[in-house]
Amino acid sequence: MSEPLPISFLSDFGLNDEFVGVVHGVIARIAPEVRVIDVSHGVPRGDVRSGALSLMRAIQYLPEGVALAVVDPGVGTDRRAIAAETSWGYFVGPDNGLLSPAAAIVGGSLRAVTIENPELILPSSGATFDGRDRFAPAAAVLASGQATLDELGPKVHPDDIVPMMLPLPEVGEMSIEGEAWWIDAFGNVQLNAGPDELRQIGVSVGSTVDVVVGPLKRSATWVRSYGDVEEGAPLLHVDSTGMLALAVRGGSAADFFVLRPGGRVMLRRP
Amino acid sequence: MSEPLPISFLSDFGLNDEFVGVVHGVIARIAPEVRVIDVSHGVPRGDVRSGALSLMRAIQYLPEGVALAVVDPGVGTDRRAIAAETSWGYFVGPDNGLLSPAAAIVGGSLRAVTIENPELILPSSGATFDGRDRFAPAAAVLASGQATLDELGPKVHPDDIVPMMLPLPEVGEMSIEGEAWWIDAFGNVQLNAGPDELRQIGVSVGSTVDVVVGPLKRSATWVRSYGDVEEGAPLLHVDSTGMLALAVRGGSAADFFVLRPGGRVMLRRP
Amino acid sequence: MSEPLPISFLSDFGLNDEFVGVVHGVIARIAPEVRVIDVSHGVPRGDVRSGALSLMRAIQYLPEGVALAVVDPGVGTDRRAIAAETSWGYFVGPDNGLLSPAAAIVGGSLRAVTIENPELILPSSGATFDGRDRFAPAAAVLASGQATLDELGPKVHPDDIVPMMLPLPEVGEMSIEGEAWWIDAFGNVQLNAGPDELRQIGVSVGSTVDVVVGPLKRSATWVRSYGDVEEGAPLLHVDSTGMLALAVRGGSAADFFVLRPGGRVMLRRP
C-alpha cells in the first residue's frame, strides 16, 4: 500500500461552531493515518470567489495530496459534488468554480467524477451537510487509497467543470482600471493586476502613481519592500503572491484608500 | 502496548490567547504519539449548555478515544473534575453537565472517577488552570495508556455526575412552544424540537407554519432542502443533526426571525 | 537519524487568511514527518511585546523542539532573521525582541545565526513573506535534522540579539505602579507584578487593596481562587502563570477596572 496523502482543507465554516472539528473527525474515523492541514476556515461566508482565490494562492505551497474545499452556498440544490485529479493531486468540493483557479494553476484537471457512490456517502437524519457526509469521506478514501477516483461516481469531462470567472483589469494608455481582490488581515489590498500591467502604462519601480477610488484620489510609490518608504506611508508593490498590492507601512491600506473586497480601483500615471 | 487513542478537544478558550496551544503542548509533552482534534474553541465563554450541545452534536462523528471538554465557569470553586468511561471512549472535563448529553448519546457512563491523583496533576505557581494542569494530563495519560481510569482518582457513581437539564418543547394541539438552541455561523437557528413534534401538530413536509417570536409573526415552509425554496426565502427543515431548524436560503434566519440563543419560538399550524 | 522535533508556531497572522495554512504547507512539503502545534495566531497585529509575552508564558508547556514565532512589523526592512539554540531547543523568527523573553526563561541562547543561506530560503515572485519563505523552511530543516544551525547562516553572538524591554513596576512603601500586560479572552487582566511586590507593600492574602486606574478607584481582595469571592465580585490573585492578575468572578475585569493592554494601574494599601 502506498503512503497516505495529506489533506489540505479550506472552508467558510468559521471556527465558532463544531463544523470543522466534525469534518476532521469524519476523516479520522475513515482514515486515521491521514494528516489534515487547515488552510483557512475564514473565507467570508458563501463567498465562492474569495475561497477560490485563497486556494489558488495557497496551492503551490501545500503538500501534494488532496485539496478539500467547501464554500458551498448551493448546498441542498442540484449543484454537483465533484472530485478531480490533477498533476498536484486530487481536488474535492462543490462544482461551483471554487476549485477551478487552483486546479488551473497546477495544470488543470486530468480526470473528474461526480461524487455519487452511496457506499461512500454518510447517511444523514436530516438535511445534507455535504462537507461532512460527502466531501470529507471522498477526501478520506482518496487520501488513504481506500477508493480510486472512478469508484466515487460517474465521470465528468474536465471541460464541464464550472469555471470561476475572474475579472481582468482594463489597461489603457495611462491607466489601469481594476479591482480589489483580497484584503488581508493586515489591511493590504491585493489587486487583480500584476507588475506587467503597470509597466504597460509606463510606470516603473520608484515612480509614483495616482490611486483613484471613487471620488478619492491618493498616490502611492511603487517600491520593492516596506522598508523603502517611511512608517505610515502608502506604497504599491508586487506582493508575496506575485500580484500588485496597495499597502501602508505599519498601517492599513484598506482604511487609507477606503477599499473593500470587490471595490473598483484605478491606477493612473500622473 | 495498545494503539494510542485520539483526543477530541472542545473549549471556550477562543483562539486569541495561547490557552489552546498550551493544552496541546501539555498533551504533546506527556504523550507525543497522541493526535489531538480540535472540535471547537468558540463555545461562548462560560456557556456550559452551548458547549454541551456542541459536543453532543459532534460526538458520533469523532473518532473513538478521549473527549476533552473544558467550559468551566466554576474553575477555582469546589466543582469536581471528572473522567468517565463510555462505550465510545473516555470523557474528561468539569462535572458541571458539560459532558453529560454527549455521554448519554453514546450510551451513558459506565464508570467514572474524580481526577485527584496529585502525581497526574501539574503543579501551578498560582491559580489553577485546570484545562492545562488537570484535564490535559488526564486526557493524555488515558489516551496513551499510561494510566487507567482508576489511577486518576476515587470512583464516582455515574448517577452522581451532574446532568445537563435541556428544556423540552411544549407540544399543544396546534402549536409547539420551544427555544432556539443553537445559532450557527451561517445564522441557521436550531430548535429544541424535532420533526415528530411538528407532525404531532398536524404539519407535514410542504406545509407552511407560523413562526411567532415575541410580537413578531412570520411564516416558513417545511422543506427537505434549501433548493426547495427561492433565494432569500425562509424555510423550516430537519437539519443535518436531525433537529428542526429555521433557515433562510442565502441569508440569516437569526436576523430574519430576530432570534438569539435561548430565545423563545412558537411554531403554529395556521 | 534522530527523532523529528515538534514545531510550536505562534504568529499575528490571524486565521481569516491562508497565511497560517501556507506556513503549515511549507513545513509539510519540506519535512512531512514533523508535527506542528499552533500556539496562537491571535497576537494583536504587529504587537511584538504581546507576542513575546505569549510565547514566554507558553514555552515551558510546549514540547522541546522548535519555536517558530512571527510577529514582524519590520518585514521588508533590514531587521535580521535569526535562529537560536537554547537548552529547550531552537527559536526561529525576526530579531526584534519577540523571541528573547521566552529564550531567557529557558536559560538563554547558547548559539545563534542569521538565516541567510539562499539554498534554504524559498524564492518569491514579489515581496518577501518571511514567515513562508525564510522562517518556515528554517524551522522545518532544524526540526527534521536536514540542516544544522550553522548551515542556516553566519553566526551572531547571543548578546547581539535584540532584547525585549519589559517595563518593571515601581514599588513604593504603600503602592505599586504597574501596567496591564495582558488581557485574556475572559477579561482577566495580568499585571507586570508578582506576589512578592504585593507583600513588599504590606498586603497579604485576604487583604483588600485599592486599584487605581486614572481617576477611577475601585478595590479588590487578594484571594487564592475565584471560589473565595461571590459571583460578580472583583478579586486579585496570582494567576496560572505566577503573575498578579485582576479578575471578576463570572465577569470581565478589563470592563470592571476599565483597562486595556498597556494601561497604567496602581495597587495601593488602603
Q: N-to-C terminal Cα separation of chain A, in Å? A: 63 Å
**In CATH terms, what is the architecture of the largest domain in chain A?**
3-Layer(aba) Sandwich
CATH superfamily of the largest domain in chain A: S-adenosyl-l-methionine hydroxide adenosyltransferase, N-terminal
Beta-strand residue percentage of chain A: 25-35%
Which fold name is given in CATH as the topology of the largest domain in chain A?
Answer: Rossmann fold
Number-wise, the strands of chain A total 15
- Main sheet record of chain A: 7 strands, mixed
Compute the CA-based radius of gyration of chain A: 21 Å
Mean pLDDT rating of chain A: 95
Output the structural class of chain A: alpha+beta
- Main CATH class of the largest domain in chain A: Alpha Beta
Instruction: Please identify the oligomeric state.
Output: homotrimer
- The count of domains of chain A is 2
Helix content of chain A: 10-25%
Please count the helical segments of chain A: 7
**What is the H/E string of chain A?**
EHEHEEEHEHHEEEEHEEEEHE
- The largest beta-sheet of chain A arranges its strands as 2-1-3-5-4-6-7
Low-confidence runs of chain A (pLDDT<50, min 5 residues)?
none
Largest interface, counted by CB within 8 Å of the partner chain's CB: A-B, 32 and 36 residues
